Structure formats: C-alpha cells, structure tokens
Amino acid sequence: MIRIIPVLILLFYACIEDIKKREIEDWVWIVMIAIGLLFGVYDYSQNITYKTLAENITLIKIIALFIIVYIAILILEKSSFQENIKETPYILAFLGVSVLMFFAPNPFNVIFQNMSVTFIFIFFITFFGLMGGGDGKALIALSSLFFGTEKTLPIFSISVFDNSLILVIFLPLAIFFYNVLKKSKFEGIEGQKLAKIRAYFTGYPICIAHLSDKTFPLVFCEDGKLKLRSALGTIEYDVDKYREEISPYTERVWVTPGLPFLIPITLGFITAYFYGDLLFKLLFYLF
C-alpha cells in the first residue's frame, strides 16, 4: 500500500505538467523506476518473491520477435528512417533490461520482465499512433512497481491501459452532464442540430478572453456566420488571431479540451489498483 503514495504524487505532478506544458521531463519516470528498484531491494531483503511472467525460453522468443519486427520497420520505413533511428537509445535500454531479467534474482527478474514486456506493448501501441511516448513511459515506470494480481492481467500496466481506454469513453458523458447542469447555449449559431448534439458531448462554451492553446475551438466564422466544426480533434491555430476574428460575432465560443491521455492513465491506475481490470471484468460479465 505504501508504494502507491509516491506514485500518485508523481502521477499528479506529471498530469499538471502535461496540462500546462504538454510535456513531461523524463526525470519523473526515472524517479518512479528508482522507487520501484528500491522496493525491489526491500522485498529481496525480506525474501519476498513474485511469480514470473513466463519461462525464459518464451521471453526470449518474444524479444527475438520484437527485434525482428523492429529491424523490418527500419528497413521498410526508409522515408522515416531518421525518426525511427532516434528510438535506438530506448531499444538499447530495453535490451539491457531484457538481459538483466535472465540473471537477476527474484523480485528483480520480475521487475525487469514486466518492464520489458510493457516496453514491447508500448512500442507497437505508439507505432500505430494510439499513444504518445510520454504516456508510454508512464506505463513502463508503473510496471517496475506493480505486478499482476487476481483482479488484473498478469502485466499490471496493461490493465492500467485497458482501464484508461474505458474511462476515456465516459469523458463525453461527463462533459454532457456538465453542459446540462450549466444549461450551455449556442450563441449566434443557427441550425446544425447534429453538430450541436455532438458539441454537447465534446466541448463547452467559454469566454473568448479565456481562450488558450490548451483548448481548441469548435466554432469558426464563414461568410459572416458562426458555424460548428464538422471534425473533432486538436487543430493548430493562433489564439490572438482567432480571438480577433471571432470577437465581432460573439463573446463566448465552444471549445474542446485538449485532455492529455496521462489523466485517464492516472485514473486507470487508481481503478486497476483498487478494483482491477475493468475490461477484463466487463468481458467476464458478458461471457
């Protein structure tokens, strides 16, 4: 129980930094991993051991397959070779940890196993654009501290990821009820009933004076009329220029929050720790 306290402190700090700067310094995750290793030292001194993920030969096959796929990506993605090669230090760190897990005593071998398998999982998730690198580092750091339980998958960090995806689904509902309670209105926007319904789930109105690069406008001006965007997601825009263009037509605009995925990850971690894997429990209930 005690190990959750420093982890929550670091995660909450990282969430605040992510909201403010959209960037988290690596020292946060390094400290978290260091804490995991310190707990490993304590467990080792107390003869506390944990169940390994798999036999060594199975882990070797997984690592070998990953290396083959990574090399194939470097060869096939020649156009982005320079970008891919930048990941080499992380790959080398992964290989170093992978080697250690075969020789380190329990519980260190379990720590390194969890970190290695989580790294492979995160690599492919980020490769397909489903997660940012900083979010992946958070999961890898968590894997050094928490292992699978009866309530989660064998790899705890993957259960955190599962929970974060499910919790993201509930975010639009939270935004919807916020708008209902606030009785949010669409000032100066006519028609577009479907777009308004969608906006009630994805955004909220704010004063144009409060616009910042942390929120993204859902409203634009066309032929002197205000309209809602037909597409969601973040956009690149100049806040001052947008405020100047939109101010003659309205004092309030609808925006969508650029919510960092680290926030759902933090909530996913809390639910995984206290309740378990939400997706696993849902599938178990359905089938």
Characterization of the model:
With 287 residues, the chain is mainly α. Helices cover 62% and strands 7% of the residues. The chain folds into two domains: 4-147, no CATH class; 171-257, no CATH class. The protein contains twelve helices and five strands. The longest helix has 27 residues, at 156-182. The radius of gyration is 23 Å and the shape is elongated. The protein starts with a helix and ends with a helix. The model has no long low-confidence stretch (mean pLDDT 83).
Compact summary:
The chain is mainly alpha-helical and 287 residues long. It contains twelve helices and five strands. Strand 3 and strand 4 form a beta hairpin.
Overall pLDDT confidence: 83
Helix and strand sequence: HHHHHHHHHEEEEHEHH
Number of domains: 2
**Low-confidence spans: pLDDT under 50, at least 5 residues?**
none
Number of strands: 5
How many distinct helices?
A: 12
**Largest sheet: number of strands, sense, barrel closure:** 3 strands, antiparallel
Which secondary structure elements does this structure contain, and how are they paired or packed?
Elements: H1 4-21, H2 27-45, H3 56-76, H4 81-85, H5 88-103, H6 108-127, H7 133-143, H8 156-182, H9 193-202, E1 204-207, E2 215-217, E3 219-222, E4 225-228, H10 239-246, E5 252-257, H11 262-274, H12 278-286
Antiparallel strand pairs: 1-5, 2-5, 3-4
Helix pairs in contact: 1-2, 2-7, 3-6, 5-6, 6-7, 7-8, 8-11
